[in-house]
Amino acid sequence: MTVVTTHRLGEPCWVDYAATDLPRAQEFYTSLFGWTAEAGGGEYGGYVTFRRDGRLVAGLGEAMEGSRPNAWLTYLLVEDAEAGERASTAAGAQLLSPTMAVGDQGRLAVVADPGGAVVGLWEPEQHRGFELVAEPGGLSWHELYARSYAEQVEFYTRVFGWQTKVLGDTADFRYLTFGDPESPSGGVYDADGMLPPDVPSHWVVYFGVQDAAAAVARVVELGGTAIRDPWDSEFGRFAQVTDPLGGLFFLQEVPGSIA
Question: Per its UniProt record, what CDD domains does this chain match (predicted)?
Fold first, then answer.
């Protein structure tokens, strides 16, 4: 089991889902990934924390007014959320949710980067972030679909200190990874020519599964939709799906002992 106890500054440390139908979303994801759900008290607005084999994986909350409903949100680790908020807006981001304390768990802010992609900032206290990675039922990759590729890469490099590595720089495939070159935590894809006109830049999450075809079949059985059936690439085997509420995510085949 691959367990993470610390995260690198400026890189993804948490994801959560803003649902218009919280019970339905909870049932779908627990059934698909074998997660257990733990609801927080009233002070946390009923926020649900998902675990796999006791390890933190992701969160779930009701979609709030002004938030992007039925979508996954990626949070980047910061030392100081207010400082991150100021640095982000100074670099061209739009502030969507000013820094707020989440009990004794930490502090968060939410911004839209200069290309319009919504991303969270997380300053941890008791809540240190997801713990299970590159395993079935855990997070396996984080990706930014960028419409303003160069501007957005510059933003994250400047504000969050990303170390990047170019994997492709052609009109057909412009992509880089960020993080330790030997162990990157995510990538940025120039998606301007691929996304429909009404779809803005956005972050997407990948979850690990043992068998992509079986997982896609299970998604459909649970009321979700297969957007793209499993395909093979030099980077692995993937599938693209949505949950019953329309929330988009990817599946990635990963090795692991978890069924």
Answer: SgaA_N_like
